[in-house]
Amino acid sequence: MFDISFGQLLLVLIIGLVVLGPERLPIAIKTVAGWIKVLRRMSATVQLELNKELKLQELQDSLKKAEQSGLNSLTPELQASIDELKRVTESLQNEINSVSQIDTTIHSDKDKL
């Protein structure tokens, strides 16, 4: 991820040992590891939200194109497919909204600490 070789990592640990001392170095490593976990979790959440948003946008574009081409002359099978796409679009939008609310709740809880 960061392209750090073993020698560079060893050098950073030695410098950390000299600067922080043997008592505080493990605590500092745990803190940095915690930050990395939080950053990874946040980036995964953002990536998931972006993917869902893109899928939702594609579904909405497809629905708009279908509506513009004239839904009145569609067969019942196509109409059922379009109705299913609308339901999926609405469920994705609800899921995105709920994830956003959970994410803001998590961030506000961390700010309180």
From TrEMBL:
Residues 49-102 form a coiled coil. GO terms for molecular function: protein transmembrane transporter activity. It is found in: Cell membrane; Membrane. GO terms for cellular component: TAT protein transport complex. The keyword NAD does not apply. It is a single-pass membrane protein. Gene3D superfamilies: 1.20.5.3310. The keyword Zinc does not apply. Pfam families: TatA_B_E. GO terms for biological process: protein transport by the Tat complex. Keywords: Cell membrane, Coiled coil, Membrane, Protein transport, Translocation, Transmembrane, Transmembrane helix, Transport. Its main location: membrane. InterPro entries: TatA/B/E (IPR003369), TatB (IPR018448). Belongs to the TatB family. The Tat system comprises two distinct complexes: a TatABC complex, containing multiple copies of TatA, TatB and TatC subunits, and a separate TatA complex, containing only TatA subunits. Substrates initially bind to the TatABC complex, which probably triggers association of the separate TatA complex to form the active translocon. Part of the twin-arginine translocation (Tat) system that transports large folded proteins containing a characteristic twin-arginine motif in their signal peptide across membranes. Together with TatC, TatB is part of a receptor directly interacting with Tat signal peptides. TatB may form an oligomeric binding site that transiently accommodates folded Tat precursor proteins before their translocation. This is Sec-independent protein translocase protein TatB.
